[in-house]
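Whether sequence alone determines local backbone shape is best considered at the level of individual chains. When preparing material for the folding task, we compiled for one chain both its residues and its backbone structure tokens. The sequence in question and its structure tokens are set out directly beneath this paragraph.
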Amino acid sequence: MLLQQEAKHKFISIGDILHLLPGKGRALVLVFLSLPFCQPLQIPGLSMPFGLSIAVIGARMIFGKYIWLPKRLLGKKFKTNTLQKVAKKTLGVVKKMKRWTYPRISGVCLFPFRHVVNGVIICLLGVFLALPLPIPLSNLTAAWAIFLMAFGMLEDDGLFMILGYLVFLITMVFFVFIALSLKLIF
């Protein structure tokens, strides 16, 4: 893959990643950005930049725009070995998921305002992912919702979109519970 070849030679920025991903790049970028948080052990320091990147991508989806990020986020560089680990896991997951995904329940993927609905949900999930909460596994549900929705968009699979929406609802309940708990404490 072109991205892995590029990462072997130098540090790579988010801007380089976006430039190297053609076609359904937005969905693939969302899969790539959410995957590190879909496991219980997380890479420290990535939550804020990746979450904000996801939120901006979601906001751009609302208005039907292509991926754009501020220069500061585009210039954020990652060590080669960190990117290679994430890319390797992403490709492994994508290859495994390919056998389960195919275009189905097309009404979910093709309804008229899908970009607005999906953009709002992804933007909210990106904000939740970026929150610096010291609560274990707080990123897990948001990341899985983003991952499922992005994979559904990538493969035009309505079932994955529906699963992403369900996990989004679970995430909303989780964060409302956290907010109410913090309000009771203070």
